[in-house]
Automatic annotation (TrEMBL):
Protein's UniProt name: GAF domain-containing protein
One Pfam match: GAF_2
Upper classification of the organism: Bacteria, Pseudomonadati, Bacteroidota, Flavobacteriia, Flavobacteriales
Organism field: Flavobacterium paronense
Homology family: Belongs to the free Met sulfoxide reductase family.
InterPro entries reported in the protein's UniProt record: GAF, GAF-like_dom_sf, Phosphatase_reg/MetRdx
Length: 151
């Protein structure tokens, strides 16, 4: 996967004038789903630090019941506390995994920082076991750096 070729379009999607932030994020999710064949569910969760919960933002993929996730619960909740990327090659082998669908085989979650504060994360599920590499992590860190400019 050549992530470098996707970066200009990520910037273009997020810099479109006259679109609300959530529309830009939804368009970004759709772009990532369309252009990375093993990105089967792409979405954002945003932190409520007062309640220590994550709240589902724009996403593309199968519907999810996980609209609110407590900090510490599941992969996303762990990233809210650790402030670190979390790659799960095989969700079946993960103890603290919140099952979304039997089709999900792996997951990557990368925190979103604004002014040094973890305000949320990008969450990606795949129907393939162990597809995520360090290149995915670096690319999604880039994506989140661009998304942070919207806040």
């Amino acid at each position: 996967m050549n992530f470098e070729s996707l970066k200009p379009e990520v910037i273009a999607i997020l810099s479109k004038a006259n679109l609300e932030r959530d529309v830009k994020l939804k368009n970004l999710c759709q772009f990532l789903t369309n252009n990375v064949d093993y990105y089967n569910w792409v979405g954002f969760y945003f932190a409520n630090h007062e309640n220590k919960t994550l709240h589902l933002g724009p996403y593309v993929g199968a519907e999810t019941d996980h609209t609110i996730i407590p900090f510490g619960k599941g992969i996303c909740g762990q990233v809210a506390e650790s402030n670190a990327n979390f790659v799960v090659p095989d969700v079946a082998a993960q103890d603290n995994y919140i099952a979304c669908s039997f089709t999900v085989k792996s997951e990557i979650v990368v925190p979103l920082f604004v002014n040094g504060k973890n305000i949320g994360q990008i969450d990606i599920d795949s129907h393939v076991i162990d597809p995520f590499t360090e290149a995915d992590e670096r690319f999604l860190e880039f994506v989140n750096q661009e998304v942070a400019k919207l806040f």
